[in-house]
């Protein structure tokens, strides 16, 4: 069911022969009602979440967004975005097409690259460096001059080089990646229950320790934080609808309102009651 945390399959990544065409590069600070309607696009999309919170829709599946996340959607995949109504998204990135040269052919041929082997959602190391590169890319793109376009392509390729560690398969096989996806889908549909690491690992048919390592390697986050993100996203929707803090806690799998409030403030930066006041202004 849930494939949004998997690495996009491709037979190989012809890194040395990639030819990028940049369509639109942004440094966007969203507003209260900002959203990109979900739909299939002919281009790739790469975004770094620099601040705030929101949601990404991938083939109909919602994933919470927060600072430090990198989001990649390949061409012809259905995706969309929307910002939190209280913690407005700040994103950097944009849309692009990719081709790859085949230098061994005469004359050299150029073929479209449908997807890069990047995970849809990740938390790459070196966030501050990535942030600087994305900002430089946006500044170069904004000049509109020929030199700016050349510099933009160079910075984009440098970004891809920084992201190459995310493409390494590690020890995960297609079946183990599928098991992690099944566990992620289970948490998305059973978040209101009392779930332990052992319970979710059993769904994947893996030991808790190995499952935790594999889940983090594949998704960029721990199973516990992934579950918190799902629960808190659902809780914010309930609070926006006027639900009490106690009821929101009970309906999203938290044992009591105190623990719920503590996790909420740690993750969101404000208490549930403060969030309610902002949401209903």
UniProtKB/TrEMBL annotation:
UniProt GO molecular function: DNA-binding transcription factor activity; sequence-specific DNA binding
Q: Which UniProt keywords apply?
A: Activator, DNA-binding, Transcription, Transcription regulation
A Pfam family annotated for this UniProt entry: HTH_18
Gene3D superfamilies assigned to the protein according to its UniProt record, in alphabetical order: Homeodomain-like (1.10.10.60)
SUPFAM superfamilies in UniProt: Homeodomain-like, Regulatory protein AraC
Q: Which InterPro entries match?
A: AraC_XylS_family_regulators, Homeodomain-like_sf, HTH-like, HTH_AraC, HTH_AraC-typ_CS, Tscrpt_reg_AraC-type_HTH
* Residues in HTH araC/xylS-type domain copies: 181-278
Q: Sorted alphabetically, which PANTHER family does this protein's record hold? A: HTH-TYPE TRANSCRIPTIONAL ACTIVATOR RHAS-RELATED, TRANSCRIPTIONAL REGULATORY PROTEIN
Q: This protein is called what?
A: Helix-turn-helix transcriptional regulator
Species whose genome carries this gene: Paenibacillus sabuli
Q: What is the lineage of its organism?
A: Bacteria, Bacillati, Bacillota, Bacilli, Bacillales
């Amino acid at each position: 069911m849930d494939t949004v945390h998997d690495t996009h399959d491709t037979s190989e990544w012809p890194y040395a022969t990639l030819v990028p065409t940049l369509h639109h590069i942004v440094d966007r600070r969203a507003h209260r009602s900002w959203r990109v309607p979900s739909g299939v696009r002919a281009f790739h999309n790469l975004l770094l979440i620099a601040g705030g919170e929101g949601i990404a829709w991938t083939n109909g599946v919602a994933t919470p967004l927060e600072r430090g996340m990198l989001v990649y959607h390949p061409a012809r995949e259905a995706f969309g975005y929307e910002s939190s109504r209280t913690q407005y998204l700040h994103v950097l990135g944009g849309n692009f097409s990719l081709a790859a040269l085949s230098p061994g052919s005469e004359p050299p041929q150029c073929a479209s690259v449908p997807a890069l082997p990047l995970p849809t959602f990740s938390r790459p190391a070196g966030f501050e460096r990535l942030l600087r590169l994305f900002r430089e890319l946006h500044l170069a793109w904004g000049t509109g001059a020929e030199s700016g376009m050349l510099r933009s392509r160079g910075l984009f390729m440098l970004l891809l080089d920084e992201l190459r560690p995310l493409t390494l398969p590690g020890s995960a096989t297609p079946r183990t990646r599928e098991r992690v996806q099944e566990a992620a889908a289970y948490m998305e549909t059973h978040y209101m229950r009392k779930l332990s690491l052992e319970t979710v690992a059993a769904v994947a048919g893996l030991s808790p320790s190995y499952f935790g390592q594999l889940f983090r390697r594949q998704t960029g986050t721990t199973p516990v934080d992934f579950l918190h993100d799902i629960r808190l996203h659902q809780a914010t929707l309930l609070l926006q609808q006027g639900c009490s803090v106690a009821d929101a806690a009970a309906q999203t799998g938290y044992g009591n309102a105190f623990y719920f409030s503590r996790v909420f403030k740690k993750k969101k930066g404000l208490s549930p009651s403060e969030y309610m006041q902002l949401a209903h202004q």
